[in-house]
Amino acid sequence: MSVSDDRPADYDLAECWDPVTNRYVDALADLDEFLRVCAELTGFDVPELRATGMADEHHRTTLAHRVRDEHALVHLWYVGAWPGEAPSSARAHDQGLVWRTFHARPPGSAAPGHGSWAEAPPGAETPGGASVPAPAAGDRSGGTGPGPGSALPGSAAPGSEGR
Q: Cα–Cα distance between 11 and 14 in angstroms, integer?
């Protein structure tokens, strides 16, 4: 679904001529067609888009805008917001495809554990090409640095001064 760069400013990706009714119709009004088009544009397949839980919400958001193009649809799926607008919900932002693309969690969406910022996300490749293993069951540390209650290197533990 490619669109030429010389399209008019009010180009609508979804508007098409229906010879049966002899009028323009909204091709994206059907949820399945909307998902098919979005799968082609985003690079994620229809089941992956449905798995975000955002298909209905993104469909409603798209139908609320008169002029639509492929850039707006991609932006909606990857960022969770229509271009120039705030996300329709916190969940829309958290389920954005951008986070899945680079195996990360959106900031503030979930508590990953103390020191998790020091480790590559599970499933990500390290510079040497090896895959990072998922943390062991029950391991909440998420990092290799000092845990809660331990002193940092070069500092004394609280209450140990003068010992």
A: 9
Rounded Cα distance, 39 and 77, in Å: 10
Q: Rounded CA gap, 2 and 41, in Å? A: 9
Q: Which residues are paired to 131 by β-bridges?
A: 125
The pTM for the full model equals 0.59
- Three-class HEC string of 90-158: HHHHHCCHHHHHCCCCCCCCCCCCCCHHHCCCCCCECCCCCECCCCCCCCCCCCCCCCCCCCCCCCCCC
Q: How far apart are CA 46 and CA 48, in angstroms?
A: 5
Residue, of 26 and 161, whose pLDDT is higher: 26
d(CA 9, CA 34): 22
